[in-house]
Amino acid sequence: MLKKHELVEKILLNTKIINTKIIELANEVNSYYKDNKEPIILIGILKGCLPFLSQFMLNLNIDCLVDFMYVESYLGQTKAVSKPKIKVDVINDVRGRDLLIVEDIIDSGNSLFKIRNHLQELGAKSIKIITLLDKKSKRVVDIEADWYGFEVPDHFLVGYGLDYDEKLRNLPYVGIADLSKIAILEKK
Ligand code: IMP
Ligand code: MG
What are 33-72's pLDDT values in tens digits? Predict the structure, then answer.
């Protein structure tokens, strides 16, 4: 039995369900890019992408490179900032390349909007988006994933890459955070 962390109210998606979904997603992406002449570049959005990206890329059978960007969209704990800042940029030359952005979750869409514009300005040939989780009801800008694993309700989620104040990314499941316990921590 999976032990629930004390700051988790409920486990929403367990490891098995997530892994099965990731294989399905990788199969779709494999067939989408199967005739590509050049390797695609996976752009993982740090740090939340890490568990999803690692599981996902192990199931890809197409040629790919891996690169990262780090975008700060949360200041401290659970509140998003509306103007995300790019803190770490890609290392590869993305001009004329097919890019696949790999995200943990899309919420307002502000971060991805910024990231996509930036990669467009760098001269990418194509930009697709894959996200493990999608809070569709929270979108404030016009951006959609090309592939998503699960549509999730508007709760503060943790685990499988998602953090509360940089912690809990290592939980092997996606859980709904217990906000009453977090409120107590934030008062301390
Ligand atoms: P957006 O810019 O509002 O779409 O937010 C995107 C980023 O905020 C994601 O890549 C996550 O890192 C973070 N985020 C959004 N929702 C949650 C959540 O429920 N828990 C933890 N992090 C989240
Ligand atoms: Mg993220």
Answer: 999 999 999 999 999 999 999 999 999 999 999 999 999 8
Q: Walk me through the domains of the chain, giving residue ranges and CATH numbers.
A: 14-154 (3.40.50.2020)
Identify the CA nearest to 46 among candidates 65, 69, 67, 79. 69
Nearest one of 60, 29, 25, 48 to 106, comparing CA atoms: 48
**pLDDT value of residue 79:** 61
Q: In the structure encoding, which two tokens stand for residue 30, read together?
A: 């494999």
DSSP element (H, E) containing 71: strand 64-74
> Ligand 2 centre and the CA of 59: distance in Å?
21
Q: Please state at what angle helix 50-57 crosses helix 15-32, rounded to 10 degrees.
A: 60
Q: Which helix (H) or strand (E) holds 150?
A: strand 147-151
How are strands ordered across the β-sheet holding 147-151? 80-88, 64-74, 40-46, 98-106, 126-134, 147-151
From the CA of 113, the nearest ligand is: 1
Cα–Cα distance, 138 to 180 (Å, whole number): 22
Q: Which of 107, 134, 163, 178 is catalytic?
A: 107
